[in-house]
Amino acid sequence: MIASSQKHWTGDVADLLRVDEGFVLADVDTRATPGYEKDKVHGAEDLKSGAHQLDEYQERLYARSRVDATDAAVLLVLQAMDSAGKGGIIRHVVGSVDPQGVAVAAFKKPTPEELEHDFLWRVERRLPESGIIGVFDRSHYEDVLIGRVRRLAPAEEIERRYGAINEFERRVVDSGTRVVKVMLHISPDEQKSRLMERLERPDKHWKYNPGDVDERELWPSYMAAYQTMFERTSTEYAPWHVVPADRKWYARLAVQHLLLEALEDIDPHWPAATFDVEAEKKRLAAS
Amino acid sequence: MIASSQKHWTGDVADLLRVDEGFVLADVDTRATPGYEKDKVHGAEDLKSGAHQLDEYQERLYARSRVDATDAAVLLVLQAMDSAGKGGIIRHVVGSVDPQGVAVAAFKKPTPEELEHDFLWRVERRLPESGIIGVFDRSHYEDVLIGRVRRLAPAEEIERRYGAINEFERRVVDSGTRVVKVMLHISPDEQKSRLMERLERPDKHWKYNPGDVDERELWPSYMAAYQTMFERTSTEYAPWHVVPADRKWYARLAVQHLLLEALEDIDPHWPAATFDVEAEKKRLAAS
């Protein structure tokens, strides 16, 4: 399915980016622009035209959740290596939606309290309410990515988590939330140039962490952990999408499209009035 | 103080809107545009120029909270009669800030669990973290507004709350959060025409509630409750501002200005690097 407002795609983007049986991360070209044949300038224009649509869909979703008491929501899960552009997605894609309709949860290193609980405890608490687009900036998947690479938990525990995640997401989807899972995929070279830019600009120094260079050494281990994660948790009800992200403009356009599709799939229409409109006009006029 | 980027004001807006000793709500002209002599078209342009500034200030605030571990945050408290434009402020003013830097909390009728606790319990839990602009869409002030008008609590309890609020806000301010309290003030006639518009547009029906007309009957009681609230809770550390809101464009410009001022008062600069920039460039280049 292609969202109806999205005439600029030359293929079914979701299909092209979805992680299906036989997917191999190493085969993905991080500079590619699957389904899109125009350039950066057009990409920015097309992003702008989708921005209004996304905002309106979310407002309709919210309106319906108030009146029809539906439980529909959308959850965007963002995973990526450092500097791949999660922040840019939130700012430039999610930023087009009314702040009242968005809830961003950034998951950092777990606190001692969080570590006292199962790894899904802190995630459950940040699920979006009905009518809302929730964004996870990192997520429960950290627990099978850095958790695996840095051996933060025993191997059996990591193994257990894949199944626990699938059961958890099954329940979330069944409760009415569309789960859109995205890995932004950049090359090590692209990361190097982005980190270098952070070092060159004093207003970007705060985004740089010397630990980022250490993590780069573990790039192959991370890619292996992602590959396993895809194989174990890309399900029919909550599939993964790998979005080539060396070109930021493409990644934004693609993620916007995935969100638009999720919202079209819910098909939120403006809810009908639950009162007699003409009678209310009279009451109001007399007040 | 006038925020340095804000050359379009002809007076000290915060001063003009602040609730000081001797303030009388009934004397406020809801169609006025204190401190601004240009029209709606210019107002929209000036709002746009402030939008970028607000976004940058918030990013600097966030950056500093990560590196310098400061506790600075901003909390915008919005109170108003129905249809006065709280939603428009959030969408058009707060919406210019990166969603990662914003946390909106909408306080509705308390849940049974919330009623089991003191009225400030649910509010405390939604205070913004450092680096963030928090927005309260309604707030603890409902408990001395509708709480007083509809007699939802005994008179002594309402009395107690004013003092409790002041102590609470004193603590919030002392912990590093600038509290910007705004009442958007419209006339009953303006409300009538806005509610009528909601009835006339099917895509706005969901925003209409027949109870809104009943509340209109209580307008004088609400204004009296606001007047008392101002007298009891407009403090030096967390003053109230009454923003004439019959002209939406003015209200947005004024609230944007109050936020810019709060951020300039914190003066968040980009934090200095906590590492050796040149050494990191070399490490990164070699990685």
Roughly how many Å is the radius of gyration of chain A?
20 Å
Average of pLDDT of chain A: 95
- Low-confidence spans of chain A: pLDDT under 50, at least 5 residues? none
Number of domains of chain A: 1
Percent range of helical residues of chain A: 40-55%
Tally of contiguous helical segments of chain A: 12
Question: What is the oligomer described by this structure?
Answer: homodimer
Q: Hey, which two chains have the biggest interface?
A: A-B, 45 and 45 residues
Query: What is the H level of CATH, i.e. the homologous superfamily of chain A?
Result: P-loop containing nucleotide triphosphate hydrolases
Morphology of chain A: globular
Distance between the termini of chain A: 49 Å
Strand content of chain A: 5-15%
Give me the strand/helix succession of chain A. HHEHEHHEHHEHHHEHH
CATH class categorisation of chain A: Alpha Beta
Largest sheet of chain A: 5 strands, parallel
CATH architecture annotation of chain A: 3-Layer(aba) Sandwich
Number of strands of chain A: 5
Pfam family, one (chains A, B): PPK2
InterPro entries (chains A, B): P-loop_NTPase, PPK2-rel_1, PPK2-related
GO molecular function, one term (chains A, B): kinase activity
Protein name (chains A, B): Polyphosphate kinase 2 family protein
